[in-house]
Amino acid sequence: RVGAPAVMASCLVVAASATVRFLSNRTRDERRARRVRPSRHHAPHIASRASSSDPENNHAVVPTPVHLALKEWSAVVAALASGEQTVLFRKGGLMDMAGGGGTRFTIKAPEMALFPTNYHPPHEDEMQDLQARPEKSKRAPDMKKGEPVPLRVGVRITGAWQTTDVAVLEALSAHHVWTAETLSSRMNWKPAVPITVIELRAFAIDDDEAKCMLPPDLKKYGGCASWIDLPIDMEVRFGKACLSDAKFAEKQKQLRSALEKVKHEKIEY
CA-to-CA distance for 178 and 10, rounded, in angstroms? Predict the structure, then answer.
């Protein structure tokens, strides 16, 4: 006859064994999840698929979310969305340099949302240039005034180069909306820092506007930083391309031809 202490000991052994198996299985599952979780700063490449109902073949994009946003003037965001502009010139912001970004602009991801900002030109003639083109000078929401910022445009990088030749601004003038004076004022900052030239294809963001709205949080999203991390629970997905395949391919051909007029080097992204 087995005594009560022996029965109790046997039950404890069985319970301990079951606990070990449970923890082992959970650890294995967590390891599997970590292996397949994509990096926030290196979003997987977004494949595209043709839409049979779209005569211009503006590709709808497989809805893979992106988790980074790049700050850019609202006028430029509008120009990218309209297809009038397909290139950005960047040197990086003050916080990029202070945060270990080195001496040049760093591309952190091949796909990103665009965070629209307001441009405050230092000279009156630049403000007049903006006022002369009202469709491209629409004011962006201002977090300093407690206004949330919607993310409505996403971009995919299709080419990237660096140059120290400011003549690139004029050489690519057909691919951006700013006057030489306006853009030069931006590029004259840190003259020793090379200019990063980024060719972009723009897409409408496919999610409900309420889901892609950043609250007015200056600590997270303010300051002179180029890149911001989006909230973990925000899924920014690309929808229809702003230009058809054929129209964008033609702009790519023209941009690359114009770029040959200045000394430059291709960079990886």
Answer: 80
Prediction pTM value: 0.71
* Per-residue confidence (pLDDT) for residue 238, from 0 to 100: 93
Strand, coil or helix: what is 257? Answer: helix
Q: What is the pLDDT of residues 7-37, one digit of tens each?
A: 454 554 444 455 445 445 554 454 444 433 3
3-class SS at 239? strand
105-150 per-position pLDDT tens digit: 899 999 999 999 987 655 555 545 544 454 445 678 888 888 999 9
Spatial contact of 257 and 93, defined as CB atoms under 8 Å apart:
no
Strands 68-73, 111-117: parallel, antiparallel or unpaired by DSSP? parallel
Residue 103 CB-half CA count within 13 A: 6
H or E stretch at 169: helix 168-171
Residue 69 and residue 230 in contact, taking contact as beta carbons nearer than 8 Å: yes
Q: Map residue 13 onto helix, strand or coil.
A: helix
Count Cβ neighbours within 10 Å for each residue of 55-86 and write b for 16 or more, e otherwise. eeebbbbeebbbbbbbbbbbbbbbbbbebbbb
The label of the residue with tokens 């951006």 reads: 176
Non-local (6+) Cβ contacts of 219 within 8 A are none
For 115, phi and psi rounded to 5 degrees? -100, 105
Burial bucket for residue 213 (CB in 10 Å: 0-12, 13-18, 19+): middle
Unique residue bearing structure tokens 């030069």:
184
